[in-house]
Amino acid sequence: MYKVKVYITLRESVLDPQGSVVKQALHSMEFKSVEDVRVGKYMELTLPSSVENVEATVEEMCHRLLANPVIEDYRYEIEESVAQ
Amino acid sequence: MYKVKVYITLRESVLDPQGSVVKQALHSMEFKSVEDVRVGKYMELTLPSSVENVEATVEEMCHRLLANPVIEDYRYEIEESVAQ
Question: Does the beta-carbon distance from B41 to A40 stay under 8 Å?
Fold first, then answer.
């Protein structure tokens, strides 16, 4: 079984209104020192061990569906684990 | 300067409709082998080096605002980096 962790973030040049709102909320609490907040997505996928070429498969899933490559960057970690 | 990476995931026992939709979408493409998808949030926070007790601050931010501790788990990584 493969556990895949996918991290999707907005590209540096893209405005992040959701991050701005979180920053304002933190400032309005006692956390006035927060300089920047960027909000992204995190996904955990489970794939069976029978999948061939996991890395290429995950790359294609990210590129075609999970992320929007025009405005987002993605990275992933693939862990093979033994099912219990 | 501190770079903080926060990972927020739904607790195992909580249904994840967004994850189900992503799984269905992957199945309707050629990725029929995907067994499970869980969708969470990923945030990057920037804090100045002057902040005292970073870990306690981040813990409190997560607990009070960033995550909903009733249905979500969170973990974070704190990296100290030198501003360029």
Answer: yes
